[in-house]
Design brief:
Elements (H helix, E strand, L loop, with lengths): L5 E5 L12 E5 H10 L4 H4 L11 E2 L5 E2 L1 H17 L2
Antiparallel strand pairs: 1-2, 3-4
The structure holds zinc ion.
Length: about 80
């Protein structure tokens, strides 16, 4: 997918940017990867799911998830499928 958005990326990963020389142009994707690298990306910082379980699973894509919630979602899905006639 082609990124058409351009945004200003903080080179040091800091929110307070006092020196404009630290700014460089990059795509939104590059900016997100930068945030992950600097540990300032919201979801990278997360350690628990919305229900308070530890994010103890990792998908092949690298995305972390909570095994407890996934098990529940699968159980509820199977339940819904059973009720369909
Ligand atoms: Zn959970």
């Amino acid at each position: 997918m082609t990124e058409i958005w351009k945004s200003v990326v903080g080179y040091e990963g800091a929110y307070e940017v006092s020196d404009l020389a630290n700014l460089t142009y990059g795509t939104v994707s590059e900016n997100r990867l930068d945030a992950v690298r600097h540990g300032t990306h919201n979801h990278t910082r997360r350690t628990h799911c919305y229900h308070g379980h530890l994010l103890d699973g990792v998908k092949s894509s690298g995305t972390r998830f909570c095994k407890s919630c996934r098990a529940r979602y699968q159980r509820e899905y199977r339940e819904r499928q059973r009720q369909r006639v």
